[in-house]
Amino acid sequence: MQISRHGNISARVPGTDQFLLTAGGSIDSLRPEQIALFDLEGTLLEGAVEPTSAEIVDMHSVVYRLRPEAGGVVHTHSPAATSFAVAGQPIALIYEAMARFDMTDGVPLAGYGPRGSRESVEEIEKAIRAHAKIGGVLLANHGVLAFSGSAAGAARANMVIEETAVLALNARVLGGAREIPAAMVALTQSRRDEFAAAGVREAPPR
Ligand SMILES: [Zn+2]
Fold first, then answer.
1. Residue 144 placed within a domain
2. Structural domain tally of the chain?
């Protein structure tokens, strides 16, 4: 399948109200001069921004303003997730990886507005405010906006959302995906946390 390679990535400068954003080119061939620095209002502080990237700055800044814990934001047109976005359908909690990545409110849908526009950003804001436990939102008729505590985490969130969408679409052939029972979601997360707290297990000396 042909893919657009379209996307953009941002990362908060740790401990500040500033973020770095890919401001031109393609994400598979970035050069250092294609990264620019912004404040949380989306004002350009350092570097240069190409017109198509200037359009989407506020799509990133709104996440950092609403989620102080957000350290990274990734936007892609991942095809399976974007299939839900163009169908106008949110994604439910159907896949264990979503619970492990704290996406227990599923992946909500932000209504359509032109990319990065006030209308679109208002829809993103509504979706984020209405759902505490998410790792991203679907952008109606457009793509995906994923976020996490770091840029690498946001990239993983984007992948989990895409995997979930692929599974949901495949499951439709088999009668549809089933949601994970709420009581089990809590167990899934506590088990994850217990094992993480225990750390690496090593065999005893022989
Ligand atoms: Zn896009």
1. yes
2. 1
